[in-house]
Every structure is written in structure tokens, then in C-alpha cells.
């Protein structure tokens, strides 16, 4: 009974997953788009939302890669009084965190990075959750299993008339077009126990439909709907090329091609085509012509000929070498790839004169010759039309083909549906999979795309037995062997000696590009089609009228829904039976002291092809993995007293009731107050009356200047009375502050801490103050520069003293914190950068350390206009093993 229950539960989960995992989401046009073409989503435009107690917003986010930068607003929440809450994204910034929250125009302590920044953009959906708790005066932000909270000391009043802006917006007070590269789906907002949902599963249009009430539909600017971009191949390029010569760029973002005896470079994303230079080579269009990129050189070869051309892209000059391929009669549609480590063109298989071959050969660029490779391991049958894909370093996959066991075309030729792994380092061949022969025969394009992270393989296939043909995309799971077919195909006319099909993957923009070359007369026509894979590979559900070229698995969603409902019904029956027999089972359970875990393996229902994996691993005992979920991280800033003068993180003044009165300081009074406070910090006496006049009223007659000074000081006195025990005293000719015990002024507290003897307790207090923000952030006056520099220099000297101290024992994390604080004030502080790099390197984070050094080096050279005279390794050795 229990096995039956587990089986139904497993089937139910599978069926449910098949139903819900349909393509959905709104992709945001980011910095790669023109500034007025970026995507924005606006909610609650006509129907404004009020929050009296609690607001909760959750959304699934897929953070995309960007060839430019990542900064932008994930979300801006604005109320009727122009209070704002911003969730800001700034991945890969050297100065700011990946995520941060701004509340009421101020940066909050909620700021954090990805848990694993190196693999942050690892092609997965993340759950982002924002919560505003008005009753408890708390803001929190969660990303996956981590939660950061901030308690607003002076309270959060109810928010009225909320509007929600994701990405770009044209609000006149909060207009923004900095859009992070992201895709959103499953958006939910709950306000005071009333919830609204926007699935963001549209396929077209500028409306984001609210599931609960159409009156709450959202408006979208320049939408990019995932359903639309994942549902069809887009024709993106069509050109006549010479000799059939083309090759892809290494990251799949574009290609080189030859036309009219010139070399061109085409960018897939921007659709720009640029002329590189003359390419005066006279070759007839031939499917055996190949163009291969090797660093700054392009190699041209044809295995039927006895030559290889080398073209230098920079100098635009050719060299011609003689090289004789030993089995040139069986070279048509051979498999080819470039071995970077050994600087060789690798060749497998081919066809000609009614024969197939299974030879592995390499062309050594330095020696300029072809040699056979002695391959060990599994045997592969002679064939052509084999797809090649790069796996992990030094590993290449060979997929399918058409040939015969004997190599003779007249003796039982057949299509092969298998996968081999070739190790370039050991020349070993291993058979990985064999799939059963399907009803529709096919061969592969020249290239396949292998994703070793997710164990996926993408292959463009076509039937080599038909003239009226179509190119079909197939997705293989290399763990289970399951195969899925993309239901939209590309029609073309197939001819064995006139047609080339190829595939590449743009790793930056997550797009597949299908290449079709058809020989027409003496020239060839190249067509490029793109398919978006941002957020994953989906099988779209197509309307019947568009299904003229559809694979066997037509209408998968309908079948999945039937499967789900049937399984659910069976499960309910099973539960009833199980409950009736529960008492009997419980009685028998006492007799057994051993609990057995039963793991049922169910056959996948989504594939019409079964796979046999070679060399299965030995069975092992079931392992139950324990997952540790982190407790929410409570971000607690230093407790703010009601009467507070805070210069860290900006200019923030709170009165005796805890109200923020910062905005009541006019620009001039604010400068007066800062001048008096900073002067007192430096010299202990304050500022002279004459200096005030020279700075602020230098263009007035002396009598008028003194009058203005008196009026403004009177205004300042009134404001200071509201803060609490804050008085202005005139000692001789100097004005200074007298601060009561109830008034909190971290700036003066810092001064006392900096002159205390070194201790770990003192250091932690210093860091606690500095952690609230940079000194007078966003407040810059010309008269203040020299005074501020004096304070900052003393601060850096003190922190550096702790960093190099042998008296105070600090953890690596504390040393990193000190280094980061120093670098916040001095971006090119050599010693702090060095120590940070050494610490990170010692923890195995070599690439992160090198990135920090490179950013330091770039900024150094930008500021001083001269090169930094050390390389990374020299820099690390500079201070030896000091730490």
C-alpha cells in the first residue's frame, strides 16, 4: 500500500511540474537597449493601494547576464507623499552591494551580496520577497533562503496611494531608466490581508493581467514576453556569402563570413555587420570548405585540396601552406573542432566514393601536417553528419550520424542515435548513450551545444532522406536520456552536396542561433535564426492552426493536464484506502524495529524516445541529504537615540521626539552647523566669527555680513533646541557646541575612540559607527575638502594601525572588514588592497582577489595617468607573509 501511495505521489509531482512549468515571464530590456526602449512595469496606476499594517511582495526573478553593467531599479514603491522604497540591483560593483534598499531617500542597512558571487548568474529562478511591517516599524528583504531586516527607529507611518514601478518608469519625481537585466514572473502583492497576483504569463501586448481583478491590470512599456521569445525561431540575418565560408566567434555572439572577396564580422545581438578587410581568395562554393578561428588568425581548408590558408586578421595578409589529407576521398560532411591546447584542427569521419570513414585526424598548425590519432577506448562506426559539441575542458562530444558498420554504403547504411565523449588529452573515446531508433530518422547539424552544468545537449536535426525538409531542435537530458522536441521547425530544401546546417549558443544573451547555408549557383545563401533560452528551455503549447510543422509531442500541455487530474484522482482513492487500513498497519508497525526507505524510479512520460546509458554506476544505498537552511539575518544598525546628530551615511538630525528634522536645515544653516561641528572636531575650539564671514558672506559689507551671521546663528540655535541639550557657546572669538549627555553624536564619539589605546573592543565600536555609512555622504562643499581630508587621513591611519597590529588579534573576516572600510574612503589605498587580496587568495578566492587588483590598477592608472608598475603576483609578494 505504501509503495502504491509513493508511486502515485511521485507521478502526481511529475504531472504537476509538467503543467506549471510552461513558459512565462516578462524579460526587461536593459542597458543593451536604447534608453527610451527599456522595459518598465507599472502597477496600481488607476487603483492606488493603501497600507496601514503590512505589505508583502513576492516575485520570481531570473537575473540575466549583461555585456555592459548591471545597475538598476528592480522595484520603486512610491506613495502620495513622495516617500520611496527602492530595491536596487548592482551586481559586480566594486563600491556597492549586489542588493540594497533605500527608504525615504536614505540608504538603509539592508545591503548584501549574492551568497556565491562567482556563480550568481547560474541560470536559475530566485524567490525575491519584500515585506513592509508598519505595525512593528520593520522592513525586510529576502532572496531565496536569506532574509535581512531593518527596524526604522522613528517609525513607519501608514503609506497611502502606493504605486509600484519595476524597471524603467516615467514618474516625473522618480523617473528612472536604469534597468537591471532581469526576468520576472509570479508576482504577488498582499496588503493588509488582501492579495493580488500577476502571473506575467502573457504572450503579447502591453497589459500585465491581474488574476484577481482586471481593474488592477498593470501597464508594460516595451515588453519582452518570455512566451513569445521562447515559442518561435526569429529570422535575424540573410546574406549571400562567398565559397560557403563562415565561422562563429568563441562566445557565440557573432560570426565571420566572406563576401565579394572581403571578410565581414556580424554581431548577432546588434545585427551590425562590419567589414574587416580584403579576403582575396578564389574558392568555389563547396560544403567541404571550412573557416576556422585560431586566435587572431583564420584558417581556410578543404580536405579535397592539398592546401591550408592562414589569414592574419590584424595585418590582413594571407599565407598558403601545402598539406595533404591522406583520406581526402571520404571527406564530405566530416566532423571538425579546434583543439586550443594543442593548436590543432581535429577531424573525424566523412563520406565519399560510396564509403564512410571513422578516422580521427589532426592538422598540426605549427608543423603544418595531417597525422592520424591513435584512439583508445570504445569503437565508433564509420559515419558522416556527426554533430560536435564542447564539454568540460579537453572533452568533446560526438552526436549521431549516418554510416554503416562496414564503412561500405552498399552494406546496410543506417542512422545512428548515440553519443560519444572524446578526451583530447588522452585520445580516449567513451560511449555515453545510445537512444532507440525513432520513427522519424534524422542526422545532426555540424555543431551541438552541450551544457555540462545542467547536463543538457541541444541538437539541430533534419532528415537526410527527404528533399522537402525541416530543421528541428531536440533537447537531451544527459543524466536521464530524456529527449524533448521543440515543436516549431525551420523549413528548407535538402541537398547532400549543397546544404549546411549549424548551431551555436550566445553565452551572454542566452540565445541559440541556427545557421542554414544553401548553395545557389556559384554562391551560397546564409540564413540565421535565433531562439531565446533566457530562463531555460521550454516546450511551448501551439495553437492548432500553427502546427503545420510540429513534432510528435503535439499539445503537451493538454496531455499533462489529463495526466495530472487522473493521477490526483487515483491519489485521493489511495488516501481513502490507506486511512481505512491505517489502524492495522500501526499495529503491525510495533513488531518491526527497522524502517525501510523505498525509492521508486518512474519512467519519464514526456519523452517518446528511451535512452540506454552506457556503463551504469553500481547501485548504492539511498542517501538522505540534510539541507541546512540559514536563519534570517537581522540587520541591526547602531541604536539611534531620540536626540541624534549623525554625519555618517549623510546628514541626519533627529529631535527629542525621534522625528527626522534634517530637511528643516536650509542649505546655509546646514553648512554653518557642519562647519562649527567639524572645526570643533579638529581643533577643539570651534570656528571663528571671521572665518564664517569669509566663507559665507565675503561679498557683503562687514556690517551687513555680521547681521546675516547673527540672523542665521539665531535660526540655528532654535533648531538645536528641538534636538535636545545642544547649545552654542562663544569662547573668545570661537563658536562651538556644548552637547548634553542625552544627545547622541557618533562623530564626536569616533574622535574619542580613534585616540584610545588599541583594543579589539575599541575597534569594533569604531567599525560599528562607520558601518552606518560614509562620512557626510552626498554632502560636498569646497571649503570642507581640506578639513574632511584631515579627518579621513587620521581615520585611515588608525584603521591601518589595527590592520598591521601584532597586539590586537583579529580574524580574517575582521581584517577584510577593516580593509573594506579603508577602501571606502581611499579606493587606491595600496596596503589595504594588498591585504584584502592576500586574505582572499589565502581562502582560495583567487579570481575574486584578481578582480579587486585589476579594478585597483585601473583606478590607479585613471587617477595618476600612469601605469601601475606591478603585476598581480608581484603585488601579492610585496609584503610576504605578513598576514
Q: Report the uncertain regions.
A: 3-21, 544-564, 582-610, 616-640
| CATH-level-4 superfamily name of the largest domain | Kelch-type beta propeller
Count of distinct structural domains: 4
CATH structural fold name of the largest domain: Neuraminidase
What fraction, in percent, of the residue positions are helical?
A: 10-25%
Short description:
With 883 residues, the chain is an alpha+beta fold. It contains 14 helices and 51 strands. It comes from Flammeovirga agarivorans.
Entry keywords:
883 residues, alpha+beta, Jelly Rolls, nine-stranded mixed β-sheet, nine-stranded antiparallel β-sheet, 22% helix, 34% strand
Description of the structure:
The chain is α+β, with helices and mostly antiparallel strands and 883 residues long. The chain folds into four domains: 1-22 and 553-583, no CATH class; 23-229, Jelly Rolls (Sandwich), CATH 2.60.120; 234-539, Kelch-type beta propeller (Neuraminidase, 6 Propeller), CATH 2.120.10.80; 644-826, no CATH class. Helix content is 22%, strand content 34%. The protein is built from 14 helices and 51 strands. The strands form ten sheets. Strands 1, 4, 9, 10, 11, 13, 14, 17 and 46 form a nine-stranded mixed beta sheet that branches. A hairpin with a 2-residue loop joins strand 10 and strand 11 (146-151). Helix 5 crosses helix 7 and helix 8 (746-754) packs antiparallel against helix 9 (760-770). It is elongated, with a radius of gyration of 34 Å. Residues 611-622 have a biased composition (Basic and acidic residues). GO terms for molecular function: DNA binding. This is Kelch motif-containing protein.
